[in-house]
Write a structure and sequence with these properties.
Radius of gyration: 31 Å
Strand content: 15-25%
Number of helices: 15
Strand order of the largest sheet: 1-3-2-4-5
Helix content: 40-55%
Structural class: alpha/beta
Largest sheet: 5 strands, mixed
Shape: elongated
Order of helices and strands: HEHEHEHEEHHEHEHEEHHHEHEHEEHH
Number of strands: 13
């Protein structure tokens, strides 16, 4: 005998869950469909009335599952769902209560079942949940990559739309130190951020991990004088050095480049990425085009005026020419993996 009620009155009346384990199994079995649970007791005549109502509803809603739980016989379930009186009717989807009717209120039970019976909730697959969690983590990391982050079309030096160009000009007008991310180079970020922050357009400005808004919001803040107040002050030299040390040691091998490995923004960066990939070397990367503070600070910090810059274990290896020399000598991989 199945725990789910079929459409005959006999089966409907007989479908009683006998244990907490059986109830959990039933919840898993029905997945996203609606489950109607009748908490009852044999000494309460109102429960018999509700049995008749639920039997008729089972005939009218073939996609809905019905069951009975004797409240006093399975106290752990009664406690879990805070059942203090019988009859109590619970409507459950994906293990969560979506409605509750206390007492023998047939019209309300009928209305609630009709309301929630329409569409079954589709439970996301594990892979979908994992993919969303991975994307959310990626977005959170990007948003917090710098105190002021601008997600825009193009780069600060080469905006690819009028709104982005005006936003960059506005931030520079107030002497803001900001980093950028080119959404045109990563459609996953472009689409995902709209949902993550519930903001459908670009550019998007974030300060200390919090969304400020787009160009219209920034204009209003600038006109009121609030924009300058909310922007963090530039880092002191010591703070900048600490930031650079943290970035340099972010991975065993770190490449500071123009663009990303998937979308290099200069020939030198493209060449060194290809070399590292050919050697099978795993490496972290940082796009210096998106962070002028790092771009300029790293030149002084490491006494190396050009990019790309390659680091291993926190120590500067050099630029493209040094990497080529090491590769030609057969020493590039061993230098970066020892």
């Amino acid at each position: 005998q199945s725990d789910c009620l079929s459409q005959t009155e006999t089966q409907a009346m007989a479908n009683e869950v006998g244990s907490s384990e059986a109830f959990l199994a039933l919840v898993n079995e029905v997945k996203g469909a609606l489950l109607v649970v009748h908490f009852w007791a044999d000494w309460a005549p109102q429960c018999t009335q509700m049995d008749a109502v639920l039997t008729e509803l089972a005939k009218s809603h073939p996609a809905v599952h019905f069951c009975k739980v004797e409240a006093e016989a399975i106290p752990e379930l009664s406690e879990r769902f805070t059942i203090t009186a019988v009859p109590t009717i619970l409507l459950i989807k994906l293990g969560k209560e979506v409605a509750r009717i206390n007492g023998a209120n047939a019209p309300e039970v009928t209305a609630k079942v009709a309301q929630h019976a329409g569409v079954a909730v589709v439970q996301p697959s594990t892979s979908d949940v994992d993919a969303k969690a991975k994307l959310d983590a990626k977005l959170a990391k990007l948003i917090n990559a710098a105190p002021v982050m601008l997600f825009m079309k193009g780069t600060a030096d080469e905006p690819q739309c009028g709104f982005s160009r005006k936003t960059v000009a506005l931030l520079r007008e107030v002497d803001a130190e900001f980093s950028t991310f080119n959404i045109l180079a990563d459609d996953e970020v472009r689409q995902g951020l709209k949902v993550y922050s519930n903001w459908k357009t670009y550019p998007q400005l974030y300060v200390k991990g919090e969304l400020v808004g787009g160009l219209d919001v920034l204009k209003e803040l600038q006109e009121s004088g609030e924009l300058t107040e909310m922007l963090p002050k530039p880092l002191s030299q010591d703070e900048l050095n600490d930031k650079l040390k943290g970035l340099i040691n972010q991975s065993k091998v770190m490449l500071f480049m123009k663009g990303t490995p998937e979308g290099p923004r200069c020939g030198f960066s493209r060449t060194i990425v290809g070399m590292l990939q050919d050697e099978g070397v795993a490496f972290g990367h940082y796009d210096i085009l998106g962070d002028n503070e790092v771009r300029q600070g790293l030149k002084t910090f490491s006494n190396w005026p050009t990019f790309p810059q390659l680091y291993c274990n926190g120590e500067l290896i050099g630029g493209l020419d040094i990497a080529k020399e090491l590769q030609e000598a057969g020493e590039l991989k061993s230098t970066l993996t020892e």
